[in-house]
């Protein structure tokens, strides 16, 4: 307990008795009676041979139970095991290489490191670090091509994470890093550590081919990443139809069914090859294992097909559609729970273009705006 706050009252013996109170704050001063603590108590690390001087090997983690002025900053020192000065330990506790290691020269080093706190008198702790030198990479990284589909309202894309590159390496200790060609960094970014792709705001309609690569420090491999951006028109929302699927998650739909269902849906509802099918959004139905998909069909000559026309087409082709994925319902109007006649139920859809949902799999990612369905009786 670092302190106490006491309220003390003095009361006299008069009639009536009078009193007064005062607050007394008692601060408990800390003495430096706790040593730094390494977490974990001892360390094991590896470094590949032929890595450049200054390569980070290990980050020491140290805590102290004393108050702040008796704890950090810590002073780190290598006490033993570094007689040939193969290692350096910086003020932040990062162990780095000071030479280019060779697996044939030595395969293992054991260092005793010390952490000293800032109290008076200073307290110290020790830890042992075992560093193994392993052979350099012999396998190239492998990465899966990624295709990303972004649906957004007109000129209103807020940006955010749109997908993740999946890469592996057969060399157990390889650390993979991801890079993006500099000329594309005004529109996209790639997290160098985990391969997440971030799109900046204001993307225009169209197709983008990203020059992304993954490296294990020795080999660098290009990755095919294609981004398709489709901007919605406000008129689409007035001509949408919802297909509700049973027992499917958004990720499974995107990764397993979307391409096949889109193809089957085109064959079912397009009157002319030049017509355009637009998948506007997919979204789980709250409190269920169902999934809603919103779509509209744009007529080549202009305008959109009316929902009633599309629903009739879907009804005729439902058996073929269900060969791809099970359909729970086809909705133009969703009057569930409303005590009014079907023809007197009005539905409206609203899109929150600043609330994006990203459904990402290893090969395909779908980014779409969140939507809200409003229904009311008109009777």
Automatic annotation (TrEMBL):
<dbReference type="InterPro" id="IPR002126">
    <property type="entry name" value="Cadherin-like_dom"/>
</dbReference>
<protein>
    <submittedName>
        <fullName>FAT3 protein</fullName>
    </submittedName>
</protein>
<dbReference type="InterPro" id="IPR015919">
    <property type="entry name" value="Cadherin-like_sf"/>
</dbReference>
<keyword id="KW-1133">Transmembrane helix</keyword>
<dbReference type="InterPro" id="IPR020894">
    <property type="entry name" value="Cadherin_CS"/>
</dbReference>
<keyword id="KW-0812">Transmembrane</keyword>
<keyword id="KW-0106">Calcium</keyword>
<dbReference type="GO" id="GO:0005509">
    <property type="term" value="F:calcium ion binding"/>
</dbReference>
<dbReference type="Pfam" id="PF00028">
    <property type="entry name" value="Cadherin"/>
</dbReference>
<dbReference type="GO" id="GO:0005886">
    <property type="term" value="C:plasma membrane"/>
</dbReference>
<feature type="domain" description="Cadherin">
    <location>
        <begin position="39"/>
        <end position="143"/>
    </location>
</feature>
<dbReference type="GO" id="GO:0007156">
    <property type="term" value="P:homophilic cell adhesion via plasma membrane adhesion molecules"/>
</dbReference>
<keyword id="KW-0677">Repeat</keyword>
<feature type="domain" description="Cadherin">
    <location>
        <begin position="154"/>
        <end position="245"/>
    </location>
</feature>
<keyword id="KW-0472">Membrane</keyword>
<feature type="domain" description="Cadherin">
    <location>
        <begin position="4"/>
        <end position="38"/>
    </location>
</feature>
